[in-house]
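Box 3.1 A note on notation
Throughout this textbook, protein chains are presented in two layers. The first layer is the amino acid sequence; the second is a token string describing backbone geometry. Keep the layers aligned when reading.
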Amino acid sequence: MGDLTRFTTAAEQDKLAGIKLDDGDVGHFMDLVGKGLVAAAQRHEAAVQDDMALSAEVIVRLQRPVKGDDGQIEILTGTETVVGRLTARKVYKDPADTIQA
């Protein structure tokens, strides 16, 4: 892994405008999130209705080791919870099929 990074000083922090994630990494990760949403929605096939309003919650946690001022390794963690609603509908093998409620 090489040398661990340290925390920025206050003077260094004042020079920063933000952080930029690699676009390719973000795109790949968003594909994984999309697959996770589809996999989680599969459980809702058990419900009778064809059209569904689903509540969604995605928790993102980014971590990395950082050397503290005392030389000890700390795990720096950033966490964000995103909530929203998704609409979904059943897809039938034969489009003429339906399930009566």
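Residues 37 and 56 are 8 Å apart (CA to CA). The helical segments are 10-14, 23-41.
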